[in-house]
Amino acid sequence: MLIDRAAESTEEVTKLRPVRLIREDGIVRPYDQVASQGFDLFQRSEIKQLEGETFREHCEFPGQKKTNIIVTNRRVMCVKEIEFVGHFNKEWECLFEHFSRPPCVDGGNLRIYCKEQSKMMIPRKDGQEPMKIVQLKQPAVAQKLCNAITEAQLARRQLQMVRQKSQRFLKPGNQS
Length: 176
Fold this sequence. Notes:
4-stranded antiparallel β-sheet, PH-domain like, 3-stranded antiparallel β-sheet, 28% helix, VPS13-like_C, 176 residues
């Protein structure tokens, strides 16, 4: 009788915390609530992921309700959650291959030098290179994101170099 009641129960089970983030290197590290929340946000956002894209870092965008900056191994993007619908909107993105130079921190501002992606490349009249300034207010947060972008770019370059090197050793007749 007791077993029958347990089987008939329809209580909903909810997660107590977001899933653990396991980084690209596969090493299981101690649980990090902030990283896990960012990873959960990245997965829930349903933003079309690029090939081989993995989550690296995130932070809330100060002054913007339900808006986050997400860093992956391929790009930086600003994602906003639309409350009443529960959907996400990608406000902007900068792919690493479009960076004209490394990002830098100026106080609480993160400067991202990303070439504008438009069909017609019209040079800017002021002669300055295109730049996105992310106003994060706290210098430590800006530096954390800058470091995450730099590390992600470095890891991506290393992966590309390994792939290029391994391609040299493939014999033309053995490719499938």
